[in-house]
Write a structure and sequence with these properties.
This protein has 15 helices and seven strands. It has 378 residues and is of the alpha+beta class. The protein has one domain: Beta Polymerase, domain 2. Strand 4 and strand 5 form a beta hairpin. Helix 2 packs across helix 3 and helix 9 packs across helix 12. InterPro entries: NTP_transf_5.
């Protein structure tokens, strides 16, 4: 399975070997480089100087290499030699994201001609909305969202553009349980993830997620209007992304920073809208979790209030920062799958029961499909 294999390879024991142990100085550099304007520095004790190789690796694993300055003078003492590597990374990000933006515009125009409402999730267009810069983080796959009733028609539109469905042997798992299907075009290697739900198995469902289509904003790219998430929906999706990463024990410094930046840009009306969308969508606790993780990483007035306490979530900011940036250091303290679901569905026992059953069935279906595929792989 493409995604599962990537995650296992990307965060294998060998991959994280270089960042085991104390990475606090390097995380401090990333936090300072990525903080929203108006943030106060987080408290931290004196320690060793940042190690350049460790800094590069911890930034890479957290998808934050684009946050580091490319000027030698802007890097911490002893890390100036990273500048050429960081410049190469920035150039690769720019080339990758330009291609992603062009393919996104092509697919969006085709869906619009077919009369299919859609919205672009994450990627360089989100980076443009949040930072005014579409080259902050590499974007390989393109994420599009359509209403569930439009999934098949949207898939047909993508196929007419030369995209073919991937992982057909796993479709029974991807489509009903994760709410997405992946398409790849051989001519240029472009990959589009077509979403019709905004949920991860094992986390509470985002009720009424199709409402993001009604609230969509617009980004302009070379004269084309690209529908993107509204600021409120973008914040909530980042909270869902953080919950997913916490569940999978994946480093997600980029998402905590993205949420902090987006919240810092919200007007009072947009912040009120965010709270309303989260409450009506059954994502109130998920938003509270995202706020807690972003607050542990950045001290900004926009993060000071809201969210409320979450039963089962540690209240130690240093521990939460580790769960965001280096979860392999805190495996014993990380919430388990059942704890996460219970925390995010507190006060809704019927949702807890339904999502627990759905998650269990998801694992069984995935295992059955993998067993079925093994004979043909020999």
């Amino acid at each position: 399975m493409r995604r599962g294999q990537e995650e296992q390879m990307g965060f294998s024991e060998e991959t994280i070997a270089s960042v085991r142990g104390d990475s606090l100085p390097e995380i401090g550099v990333l936090l300072a480089a990525s903080a929203p304007a108006g943030s106060a520095p987080l408290p931290g004790g004196a320690g060793r100087s940042p190690d350049p190789d460790r800094l590069f690796d911890i930034a890479r694993l957290n998808k934050m290499l684009g946050q580091l300055p490319v000027s030698p003078a802007g890097l911490p003492p002893g890390c100036a030699a990273l500048a050429p590597r960081l410049l190469q990374v920035r150039l690769r990000i720019a080339a990758m994201n330009r291609r992603a933006m062009a393919v996104t515009a092509e697919a969006s125009a085709a869906l619009a001609r077919a009369g299919l409402r859609h919205v672009v999730l994450k990627g360089p267009f989100q980076q443009m909305a949040v930072h005014g810069d579409p080259f902050r983080r590499p974007s390989g796959d393109i994420d599009l969202f359509v209403a569930p009733r439009d999934r098949r028609r949207a898939a047909a539109v993508l196929q007419a553009l030369g995209f073919a469905a991937m992982e057909q042997e796993q479709a029974l798992w991807w489509i009903p349980f994760l709410g997405e299907q992946h398409f790849r075009r051989d001519s240029d290697g472009a990959v589009i993830d077509l979403h019709h739900r905004l949920q991860q198995a094992g986390l509470p469902d985002w009720r009424g997620a199709a409402g993001v289509l009604d609230r969509a904003a617009t980004q302009t790219h070379e004269g084309d209007a690209i529908p993107v998430l509204s600021p409120a929906d973008g914040c909530l999706l980042m909270a869902v992304t953080l919950a997913k990463a916490l569940l999978a024990h994946e480093p997600c410094g980029w998402a905590a920073t993205e949420l902090a930046h987006w919240l810092a840009r919200l007007s009072p009306a947009e912040r009120q809208e965010l709270d309303g969308i989260a409450a009506s969508g059954g994502q109130g606790q998920t938003l509270a979790l995202g706020l807690a993780l972003a607050r542990a990483c950045h001290d900004h007035p926009a993060l000071a209030h809201g969210g409320g306490a979450l039963r089962g979530l540690p209240d130690d900011p240093a521990l939460l920062r580790d769960l965001v940036f280096q979860p392999w250091q805190r495996r014993a303290e990380a919430p388990r799958r059942r704890q996460m679901l219970r925390m995010l569905t507190e006060g809704r026992p019927h949702v807890l029961a339904a999502e627990a059953a759905r998650a269990a069935l998801s694992l069984r279906v995935q295992a059955a499909l993998e067993r079925r595929a093994k004979p043909s792989a020999r």
